[in-house]
Design a protein that fits this description.
42% helix, 15% strand, six-stranded parallel β-sheet, alpha/beta, globular, Undecaprenyl pyrophosphate synthetase, 242 residues, disordered N terminus
């Protein structure tokens, strides 16, 4: 079943996991409870994704703008990251998921950086699915850093300005080597990209749902994929009805 579904895509699904705080507030709970419930939802989606033929699952865990939140909440999010990477690592290894962290690692707590190194090293040989976690990530910063690296290569004489094309830019992004996003899902009812994978989502189908992330389940993932499969992806060309 997974192989048949993979033939029709999506290969790369990206998710903006939104709604943890509202989920907790509606229950009269601190926001930390919402984040913990959100991790449980993520675990279910990570297990379900390969069964739907998904080769790359990218999740927005912490943005560059999230540092503006109260320190206690940021500390809790970092603790949850370390907890998830360490406690789930045996399952990720067994299920063939390769962990890849994208974003700016400088400035992250030392224990978070260490957990990232452990997870990436332990899963480096896995090939069933890529689990990409966007951490301290911002798409504009990603593009700025890519431009700087290309400028340094030009200055060093490795490239000429004329050598810089879309492939050259993509090769300098944190997602280098991964396919572009086919389907972007955002939970929680908001309808915006929030500085997430702007380059990679250039032709992505966008799916917004009102379900708060802690309530997001594999059946909601299936609904999003079903929607994706009704779309005619033209990539700037003419569709069958034109």
């Amino acid at each position: 079943m997974a192989e048949a579904q993979a033939a029709t895509g999506p290969r790369h699904v990206a998710i903006i996991m939104d709604g943890n705080g509202r989920w907790a507030r509606r229950r009269g709970l601190p926001r930390a409870f919402g984040h913990r419930a959100g991790v449980e939802a993520l675990r279910e989606i990570v297990r379900a994704a390969p069964e739907q033929g998904i080769e790359v699952l990218t999740v927005y865990a912490f943005s560059t703008e999230n540092w503006r939140r109260p320190k206690a909440e940021v500390d809790e999010l970092m603790r949850l990251l370390v907890e998830f990477l360490d406690s789930d690592l045996p399952d990720l290894v067994r299920e063939g998921a390769r962990v890849r962290i994208i974003g700016e690692r400088r400035g992250l707590p030392a224990d978070a950086q260490a957990a990232i190194v452990r997870a990436e090293a332990a899963t480096s040989a896995n090939a069933r699915m890529n689990l990409v976690i966007a951490l301290n990530y911002g798409a504009r910063q990603e593009l700025v850093e890519a431009a700087r690296r290309l400028a340094k290569r030009v200055a060093a004489g490795e490239l000429t300005p004329e050598d810089i094309d879309a492939a050259a830019v993509a090769g300098e992004l944190w997602t280098a080597g991964l396919p572009d996003v086919d389907l972007l899902i955002r939970s929680g009812g908001e309808r915006r990209l929030s500085n997430f994978l702007l380059w990679q989502c250039v032709y992505a189908e966008l799916y917004f749902c009102d379900v708060l992330w802690p309530d997001f389940r594999p059946e909601h993932l299936v609904e999003a994929i079903s929607y994706y499969r009704t779309r005619e992806r033209r990539f700037g060309g003419l569709g069958s009805g034109n």
